[in-house]
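Look over what follows to help learners.
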Amino acid sequence: MKAVALLQLKNNPNYQKNLDKILSYIQELPKEAIIVAPEVCLTDYDYENLEEAVKFSQYALQELLKNIKSQILILTLLVKEDDYFLNEAVVIHNGKIIHRQRKYKLFKLGDEDKFLRAGDGEDIVKFEIDGLIYGVLICFELRYKELWSKLEGADIIVVPSQWGEPRKQHLELIANALAIVNQCYVLVANSAKDGMAKSSAIYAPMGGLVRDDASEVIRGYIDLKQVRFMRRYLKLY
């Protein structure tokens, strides 16, 4: 059994307050927990202040690296490369960045493509931490079945997101389907700011879930015996 904590947070316009809240939860949560925060939770999509958002994100990343020891933290932040801004997921463990992944499928309905550059999708790969196989999909990427296949065999797929309330049912149904089809756990940490779906949840390979729209932190456990059982039972792969 491994502890999981999904941070279902509202973005504060004050970047430092967002970082302080995450740091406080890091201190409070179990030492071995998997902690997932919503998409761009440090700065939001602050398109009017992208340079400032990138600068703060890099500062915040260094602070998070100092504070994450045996826990695992997954979040996304805004970065800049050459003259382009990107949304990048980072996975932190034992004071190191274990995995980086740039958002490949931008949400055009939210104008992301007007301000950000998409990644090339080559970094959507499985990676290992302490014997468990992980994968990451960033928000809108959850809709693309070809990306599911890239993560077949992962024990845990993590989805940091800012998914809108009008498509709340889509988020819940698709995440549950991914857990069942890929026979894995799916951990969704969605934003709680106005207009967002919340729906942060732990989805199990058997289809069960832990979800609580009223809480800022959704806590639970994953049992890898479920993953091994389903893969022996159905033998899909």
